[in-house]
Design brief:
single chain, mainly alpha, globular
Length: 215
């Protein structure tokens, strides 16, 4: 599962930058020529498949979350790369249904309901934009805390820093009673990462410990 997390994170962080001749067309791009160029320049099956989903949406934008999901399912099911097994396909389906809806700013209630029924690492990003989904402060805090613990291997240090900032803020507005215990859990989890990669993770642990000191 760690390997799948890493594969997804690469696509998540790389789709917005240049990689050789590849240029991400944009989440709502309708220029088929640009998308075709991105498909041709894609250096991984994952990226190529995501761009094929985008091409479907360029030709027929989804009118509902159900249509979005059906398009993702169909494109992923048609992947013939033997290295992409059933587990990876299932993971892509869940992540991309959330990711496309999130970045296209579409189908907020349906996306949140899907997240609740299909938990995954991408829920952290939904929680970070929780007000967009009409989530309460308590719901946002709970989802952030759960993701940071459950999917700690899935996030970059920058992801975690941003999430911890929001976690601390929502702990106040939601009048959370478990914040100290939650921060202690995070300290234990991310301190291990700081030992393995001090330059990247020590600032994250310092932030967590500073927050802990206020309780």
């Amino acid at each position: 599962m760690k390997k799948i997390f890493a594969m997804f994170l690469f696509a998540l962080t790389a789709v917005s930058v240049f990689a050789g001749d590849y240029v991400f067309p944009g989440w709502k791009c309708t220029d088929v020529a640009k998308i075709d160029a991105a498909i041709a320049a894609s250096d991984t099956t994952q990226r190529k498949t995501a761009m094929q989903v985008l091409r479907v949406f360029a030709e027929q934008p989804p009118a509902s979350f159900e249509e979005l999901c059906a398009a993702v399912d169909q494109v992923v099911d048609n992947v013939s790369d033997p290295t992409v097994n059933a587990e990876i396909k299932a993971y892509w389906k869940v992540q991309w249904k959330k990711q496309f809806a999130y970045n296209r700013l579409e189908f907020f209630p349906e996306t949140l309901a899907f997240c609740k029924a299909n938990q995954s690492m991408y829920d952290l990003f939904v929680a970070m934009a929780g007000k967009r989904y009409s989530m309460s402060d308590t719901e946002i805090y709970t989802l952030l805390a759960n993701c940071l613990v459950k999917y700690s291997d899935a996030y970059s240090a920058a992801n975690v820093r941003n999430a911890v900032k929001k976690l601390v803020a929502f702990a106040v507005t939601a009048e959370v009673k478990t914040q100290k215990n939650d921060l202690e859990k995070l300290n234990r989890i991310y301190s291990i990462k700081a030992i393995e990669n001090p330059s990247e993770w020590t600032p994250v642990v310092s932030m967590i410990r500073t927050a802990m000191a206020t309780y």
